[in-house]
Design brief:
The protein is mainly α and 127 residues long. The protein has one domain. 72% of the residues lie in helices and 0% in strands. The chain is built from four helices and no strands. Helix 1 packs antiparallel against helix 2, helix 2 packs antiparallel against helix 3 and helix 3 packs antiparallel against helix 4. The longest helix is centred in the middle third of the chain and has 26 residues. The protein is globular and about 50 Å long. It starts with 11 loop residues before the first helix and ends with a helix. The mean pLDDT is 86.
Length: 127
C-alpha cells in the first residue's frame, strides 16, 4: 500500500506571511500615512491576497490527502467564502449586517482569517 505524505501546514513561509498580514493590519489600524498602505480599500485587497497565500498551505494538504469532503475542509472553504464576501462588500459598497465601514470589514476579515488558520491547524492534527 502506498503511503501519502502530509505537507506541513505551519512552515516558515506561513509565519512570514502571518507577520506581513499583522504588519499591514497594524499600519491600517494606526492610521499612519505610508505609501501604498494609506487607503483602507487597498489594505483590504492586500489582506485578502496575503490570506489567500496563507490558505495555500492548508488547501495543499487537503488536496494531497484527498479530503475535500472532510467537515473541517468544508468549514475552511466556508470561512474563505465569508472572507471574500466581506472583502467584496467593502470594495463595492454593499451593506452587511454588523459591518458598517471599511475598518470593521478589516477587523472581520482578520477574525475570520484567525478562525480559518485555527481550523487548518486543528485539521492538521487529525489523522
Amino acid at each position: 500500500m502506498k503511503s501519502v505524505s502530509q505537507p506541513s501546514v505551519l512552515n516558515p513561509a506561513v509565519f512570514a506571511l502571518l507577520f506581513l498580514f499583522a504588519a499591514v493590519m497594524a499600519v491600517a489600524m494606526s492610521g499612519k500615512r505610508i505609501p501604498l498602505l494609506s487607503n483602507l480599500k487597498v489594505d483590504i485587497i492586500l489582506l485578502v491576497v496575503i490570506g489567500m497565500a496563507i490558505c495555500m498551505s492548508g488547501i495543499g494538504r487537503v488536496a494531497a490527502m484527498n479530503q475535500w469532503t472532510h467537515p473541517l475542509a468544508i468549514l475552511g472553504s466556508l470561512l474563505g467564502v465569508l472572507i471574500l464576501v466581506v472583502a467584496a462588500a467593502a470594495l463595492f459598497g454593499w451593506k452587511l449586517p454588523l459591518i458598517q465601514n471599511d475598518t470593521q470589514s478589516m477587523i472581520a476579515i482578520t477574525l475570520l482569517l484567525v478562525l480559518k488558520i485555527a481550523n487548518t491547524f486543528i485539521h492538521s492534527l487529525l489523522p
